[in-house]
């Protein structure tokens, strides 16, 4: 494909409003008396400097305040502490309890079952405390957010 054919295709694409079309080229011979065509890529006339402000100074936009995520880290640490507590509580019930030493048969089975029930009750209480602490933390966070929000204008 020759350069002339490519130019005609690009010109057709440009006139059709195709997004990949390159803009028309403005170089080449022209009438010396004719004014230069305005370039669309040049910025417009600069606006004047506001009165009372030196031209070399720009007003800096205020930097946005960095949000501290203290609550997030407190909440995460509470979750980790409860998780460790549940794991250690469940692990403490494994094996034969010291009070069941020397027992055999049904007595040993009953003693082990009682120990497992105690462990399950203990872990259940820890999970209940965990849920209560999460509800309290959630309500506290909602109250904090409502108190610190910007008033509507």
Detailed description of the structure:
It is a single chain. The protein is mainly alpha-helical and 153 residues long. Helix content is 51%, strand content 0%. It contains three helices and no strands. The chain has helices spanning 3-15, 70-91, 106-148. Helix 2 packs antiparallel against helix 3. The protein is elongated, with a radius of gyration of 39 Å.
- Give me the strand/helix succession: HHH
From the helix content, strand content and strand pairing, which structural class follows? Answer: mainly alpha
Q: End-to-end distance, in Å?
A: 65 Å
Radius of gyration: 39 Å
- Structure annotation, total helices: 3
What is the share of helical residues? 40-55%
Percent of sequence in beta strands: under 5%
Round the mean pLDDT to the nearest integer and report it.
Answer: 78
- Net shape: elongated
Salient structural properties:
single chain; 153 residues; elongated
Quick take:
The chain has 153 residues and is mainly alpha-helical.
Layout: helices, strands, pairs:
Elements: H1 3-15, H2 70-91, H3 106-148
Helix pairs in contact: 2-3
